[in-house]
TrEMBL record:
Region of interest: Disordered: 168-197
Pfam family of the protein (one): Hexapep
The species this protein was found in: Ferrimonas sediminicola
Protein name: Carnitine operon protein CaiE
InterPro entries named in the record: Hexapep (IPR001451), Transf_Hexapept/Carb_Anhydrase (IPR050484), Trimer_LpxA-like_sf (IPR011004)
Length: 197
């Protein structure tokens, strides 16, 4: 992966995390255990510190950046969808930020909350636990149900498993010229885990 020191600060990546080789890490970046960072994500820690806590995921095309003397943080099991931009904000424990959303400086997304896809969370927003936010600008739409949270947790488990699956099996190859006749299909972690009895 492209990894750069900046003014003496070198990114820190826990050995159990998976960071795709095309992701870019610059400066004051801290990536915790079991984290998944997708292709073409950019974590530019040249102003403030960027932190991905244990079990979080930052999917493809996401951008994390901050401002001086601020931490931009995704707390444990945070789930950041494709193309989202996080700037100087805090995403609470077990929260989700939907695809192509923007969360601005000083905003705090409450634990177990969700920001709907393509939403814009304004500077300084202060959220509560278990809120659904949506819109431009984002507003609280309702409280989240246990069913909503279970869906989110299953998706986060998929990405936590993907960190290990990617580390174990992803490698550059030349493409095939045509599909094999008996080409298998991928299974998600929820499909391959034995049921508890």
């Amino acid at each position: 992966m492209p990894c750069y020191q900046f003014e003496g600060l070198i990114p820190v990546v826990d050995p159990s995390a998976y960071v795709h080789p095309t992701a870019v890490l610059i400066g004051d970046v801290i990536i915790g255990p079991g984290v998944y960072v997708g292709p073409n994500a950019v974590l530019r820690g040249d102003f403030g510190r960027l932190i991905l806590e244990a079990g979080a995921n930052l999917q493809d095309g996401c951008i994390m950046h901050g401002y001086c003397d601020q931490d931009t943080r995704v707390e444990a099991n945070g789930h950041i969808g494709h193309g989202a931009v996080l700037h100087g904000c805090v995403i609470g424990r077990d929260a989700l930020v939907g695809m192509n959303s923007v969360v601005m400086d000083g905003a705090v997304i409450g634990p177990e909350s969700m920001v709907a896809a393509m939403s814009f969370v304004k500077v300084g927003f202060r959220g509560e636990p278990r809120q659904l936010l949506a819109g431009v600008p984002a507003r609280v739409k309702r409280s989240l149900s246990e069913q909503d949270l279970q869906w989110k947790r299953l998706n986060t488990l998929e990405y936590q498993a993907l960190a290990g699956r990617s580390a174990a099996s992803m490698e550059p190859v030349a493409p095939l010229s045509r599909m094999e006749a008996d080409r298998p299909r991928l299974k998600g972690v929820t499909e391959v885990q034995p049921s508890a009895k």
